[in-house]
Amino acid sequence: SSDSTPIRATLFPGDGIGPEIADSVKQVFKAADVPIEWEEHYVGDQIDPRTQSFLTWESLESVRRNGVGLKGPMATPIGKGHRSLNLTLRKELNLYANVRPCYSLPGYKTRYDDVNLITIRENTEGEYSGLEHQVVRGVVESLKIITRQASLRVAEYAFHYAKTHGRERVSAIHKANIMQKTDGLFLKCCREVAEKYPEIVYEEVVIDNCCMMLVKNPALFDVLVMPNLYGDIISDLCAGLIGGLGLTPSCNIGEGGIALAEAVHGSAPDIAGKNLANPTALLLSSVTMLRHLEFHGKADQIQNAILSTIAEGKYRTADLGGSSSTTDFTKAICDHL
Amino acid sequence: SSDSTPIRATLFPGDGIGPEIADSVKQVFKAADVPIEWEEHYVGDQIDPRTQSFLTWESLESVRRNGVGLKGPMATPIGKGHRSLNLTLRKELNLYANVRPCYSLPGYKTRYDDVNLITIRENTEGEYSGLEHQVVRGVVESLKIITRQASLRVAEYAFHYAKTHGRERVSAIHKANIMQKTDGLFLKCCREVAEKYPEIVYEEVVIDNCCMMLVKNPALFDVLVMPNLYGDIISDLCAGLIGGLGLTPSCNIGEGGIALAEAVHGSAPDIAGKNLANPTALLLSSVTMLRHLEFHGKADQIQNAILSTIAEGKYRTADLGGSSSTTDFTKAICDHL
Ligand SMILES: CC(C)[C@H](C(=O)O)[C@@H](O)C(=O)O
Ligand SMILES: CC(C)[C@H](C(=O)O)[C@@H](O)C(=O)O
């Protein structure tokens, strides 16, 4: 595709601060003349029997049809008889890989200035099987499921990502010294795929050691691939290194090439509607969506505008120590385009 | 007990650098006039059928009889038909809680200077059940087991520890939003125990969020209690914040009051026998053993001598950027006593 073909993309503004940060993306895309038309979908206020959740069937159909989407934070309503919105999306759209680029933002100081890594998380199985039961009173068990199919699929995605993004190394993160069968199978699949990519360095790192190395020297890592729960943990750890979930993009890849980019932070109901939210994570996520569409020109342009605005430091939202509103920060980004 | 009653304690020097760092402890204890007699046990060179591992029955009996022990690194020999040495010790001695104090060392600079927390890890069940099997070709599962008994036991230990060590808060780390039954039971047990300790603040933190908070601001935490695998991950992450496993003590608590202190770093075969190893983790572990025996006078004295030696910086081993030998560093500590 080129930067001028018009494309339809699904937009889930989500709850809480969702609509405000989604507005920010719409503004920036308009200012950058991105040829995308949004199909907006909101979470319903009752359970749709076809999805068993508050997500409407139409909204899922929209993502399937468009192949790309962007999602703000969704707070799962409390109560029984329905599934978590995030988990429903992953399941229904078979979003098998969660990709989170994590890099130090120039000019935004944390304890680390040398982070530049990508976590790729298997997103459909593992500890998230949902299979749990009580064996006898006071004894419960959860099943962790690892399959060859899902492991090969995410490993393949990770190596392909490394190769096509100029990355040099893939580290498989595991605890196969304890879970020899499950994590052992995951590693076996990674090794099989690694053989097809002799130009990419492959290594295996035990998760406890990985976390220690990450906090000591994150520059040791490049692309990390891992089962579901380890990915959940390590991607948040990495986000913490550069400032938090408000700054890190995320993109979910599904079978058939679907890409659903999302801000993984919460819906921050306390500041919702007050024009105070930081739209950076959703904006950077929208950039990963553009890259997935191979709109690299627009992606670079928008990413540079976001990073320059943060680096200059004149317009920053309160979470970054500034006092700008969401709209002023957004306007500053548009002015940088 | 008082600081003058002679006590027998089991010592497993372990493999690789183990004997050198164990020597360092012996020297320091001698210099500090600690009334302890060591019963030394080495890992056998064949499988003892009574332990199904290279650990001898006599060595386990020694810990059971003495109630206290200190353990250097043990490299599990590769091969089939026997169990990991560390896991065998935990199992055979029912070492249900792994306690790791983690604090920034004055004068030894890392990216963090404000770490002062204790991780308390359930050490007998969870993801370490050893129960795994292949369901069909290409599909494997591991069982995570959580019991009310083990959860209450470690929660009780954590709150008691907090209370008796002047700590203000206990955070239970979990992923009960996903593993509602297993981690849910763990939390339920923590809540029950928390009610008995109204003077201790109790909170629950999801593991991914916990890791993010730890790398952003570890001063937010005080005592953390959690299931086995989370403890494995978080204790290593915390060690990384202050410089690594070479600097962090660890103590395992078993039923009936057994305490087995251990250095959790590896046996570093590459530098074994070269008088280059850093004995700090084993020395600080020996201090936790002394505290368990309520030899607080000796414990303070030795801990201060270790910390002052590191703080002064004149004698440091290579891993800390110095060029001292193990014996010179040890001598410097003795001189500080
Ligand atoms: C909200 C929760 C179910 C989710 C997860 O555990 O996957 C979140 O932590 C994430 O990383 O998207
Ligand atoms: C060596 C390994 C089995 C062990 C564990 O996973 O418990 C280690 O990481 C530890 O923390 O003591």
Gyration radius of chain A, to the nearest Å? 20 Å
Order of strands across the main sheet of chain A: 2-1-3-12-11-4-5-10-8-9
Helices of chain A, by number, come to 10
Strand content of chain A: 15-25%
The best one-word shape of chain A is globular
Report the biggest beta sheet of chain A as strand number plus sense, adding barrel if it closes. Answer: 10 strands, mixed
Helix/strand order of chain A, N-terminal first: EHEHEHEEEEHEHEHEHEEHHH
Q: Say which molecules are bound, naming each kind only once.
A: 3-isopropylmalic acid
Please give the number of β-strands of chain A. 12
Structural class of chain A: alpha/beta
- For the termini of chain A, the CA-CA separation is 22 Å
Provide mean pLDDT of chain A, rounded.
95
> What oligomeric state best describes the polypeptide chains here?
homodimer
Helix % of chain A is: 25-40%
Write a compact overview of the structure shown.
Chain A is an alpha/beta fold. Chain A contains ten helices and twelve strands. In chain A, a hairpin with a 2-residue loop joins strand 6 (about 130-135) and strand 7.
Task: Tell me what you see in this structure.
- Two copies of one chain form a homodimer.
- Chain A is of the alpha/beta class and 337 residues long.
- Chain A contains ten helices and twelve strands.
- The first copy, chain A, has a ten-stranded mixed β-sheet with strand order 2-1-3-12-11-4-5-10-8-9, with helices on both faces. A two-stranded antiparallel ribbon of chain A has the order 6-7.
- In chain A, α5 links the parallel β8 and β9.
- The radius of gyration of chain A is 20 Å and the shape is globular.
- In chain A, 54% of the residues are buried.
- The mean pLDDT of chain A is 95.
- Chains A and B meet through β6, β7, α5, α6 and α7 of A and β6, β7, α5, α6 and α7 of B.
- The structure holds 3-isopropylmalic acid (2 copies).
